[in-house]
């Protein structure tokens, strides 16, 4: 099949050469949560599709999972640390305020020739980061980059709030993006949006300059994530549908051309509702939220890794990554895998 219409013309293409994921060994089940808050397995499963989530221990950190995922991706790509020229870690739960989580990954893998930074776009972080790397690759600026989505969300989860503590898990996923002149592979199209007026729908307010560490909080729960569930549900479905339709239109594709739609795993009901409106068949709308929960920026690369490892996607397949998250932010990438 000929490559779909590409709005951008370049002799170079940003190709996924390797992929990897890492999650904590510790698992928190719905039954475990029922011992902590007023909830049940049936209540959680019906409303979210989640059965279990992997949660980090006190000594496990975001950079640890990011590094493990990166090493797996590099191994598949058969690339040495010194060949990596850029590392982006998409995260809202960084190793620390500064330096960046990417700095710790760089140190851990020995990528001395890379320049590195973190990207904060919540659940949309990974698709945002792919778009950034795409620009550097397509202009010929670099040959090899590492894009990681990594989170330890349970460290900012209020386990007394039954509406939010049921949702989140920890982990990381990574891809190696390489410069290639292969006209039949690579990132075909990327699109991204944000709407800052709706920031209150998804937020974690402390500790930043508005609520600094040395100022006593009037509401101690500001250190945890806050979610306006109904607004997020409505906006997520709307924006996912709009974005997927834009991708198909700009690339001259139909859903028949897409092998797999890999959405951010925020809530099974949201993904299923959006898929229904887009006429995406069940086998094309990938879901693994039942095992991992919502891992924010890590969810798409973790899902991508699973799809690739299990043969659900293969070289030459066209896949569509789509995300929606805090900011509000949303976006997508169309990729010939």
Summarize the structure.
The protein has one domain: Thiolase/Chalcone synthase (Peroxisomal Thiolase, Chain A, domain 1), CATH 3.40.47. The longest helix has 23 residues.
Describe this structure in words.
With 337 residues, the protein is α/β, with parallel strands linked by helices. The chain has a single domain, classed as Peroxisomal Thiolase, Chain A, domain 1, CATH 3.40.47. The protein has helices at residues 30-34, 41-48, 62-77, 101-109, 125-138, 229-251, 268-277, 289-292, 299-309; strands spanning 13-22, 27-29, 52-54, 86-90, 115-119, 144-152, 170-180, 186-194, 202-203, 226-227, 260-263, 318-325, 329-336. Strand 4 (86-90), helix 4 and strand 5 (115-119) form a beta-alpha-beta unit.
Task: Record keyword descriptors for this entry.
globular, alpha/beta, 13 strands, Peroxisomal Thiolase, Chain A, domain 1, 4-stranded mixed sheet, 5-stranded mixed sheet, 337 residues
How many helices does DSSP assign? 9
Largest sheet: 5 strands, mixed
Structure class:
alpha/beta
What would the CATH topology be? Peroxisomal Thiolase, Chain A, domain 1
Q: Report strand order across the widest sheet.
A: 1-7-6-4-5
Distance between the termini: 13 Å
Question: How many individual β-strands?
Answer: 13
Radius of gyration: 19 Å
Which of globular, elongated, flat, extended, rod-shaped describes the shape? globular
Kindly state the percentage of residues in helix. 25-40%
CATH top level class name: Alpha Beta
- SSE sequence, one letter per element: EEHHEHEHEHEEEEEHEHHHEE
Spell out the CATH superfamily. Answer: Thiolase/Chalcone synthase
The proportion of strand residues reads 15-25%
Name given to the CATH architecture: 3-Layer(aba) Sandwich
Mean pLDDT: 96
- Count of the separate structural domains: 1
- Low-pLDDT windows of residues: none
